[in-house]
Amino acid sequence: MRAVVDKDTCIGCGLCASTEPDVFKMDDDGKAVSFADTTEENKDSVQTCIDGCPVNAISAE
Ligand code: SF4
Q1: Residue 52 and residue 47: Cα distance in Å, rounded?
Q2: What is the pTM of this model?
């Protein structure tokens, strides 16, 4: 699974990058970006980010 951040929707709160730094980081524009595929080890954490994003900017492919 690959998580995808909709940068037009992201408000840059930092929740996903602090919750799962192996998948999400804050980009130079202050918005989050997904830079790695989800693994078996972090898929639950990534789902927590998807569910916890305050503006529902994260989806999964
Ligand atoms: S949790 Fe959502 S709004 Fe916050 S930085 Fe991540 S993608 Fe952006």
Answers
A1: 8
A2: 0.95
33: alpha, beta or left, given left = phi > 0 and alpha = psi -120 to 50? beta
Fold of the 3-60 domain: Alpha-Beta Plaits (3.30.70)
**pLDDT by residue (tens digit) across 2-40?**
999 999 999 999 999 999 999 999 999 999 999 999 999
Residue ranges around ligand 1 (CB below 6 Å) = 5, 10-16, 32, 53-55, 57-58
Question: Is residue 60 classed as helix, strand or coil in its secondary structure?
Answer: strand
Q: How far is the CA of 15 from the centre of ligand 1 (A)?
A: 6
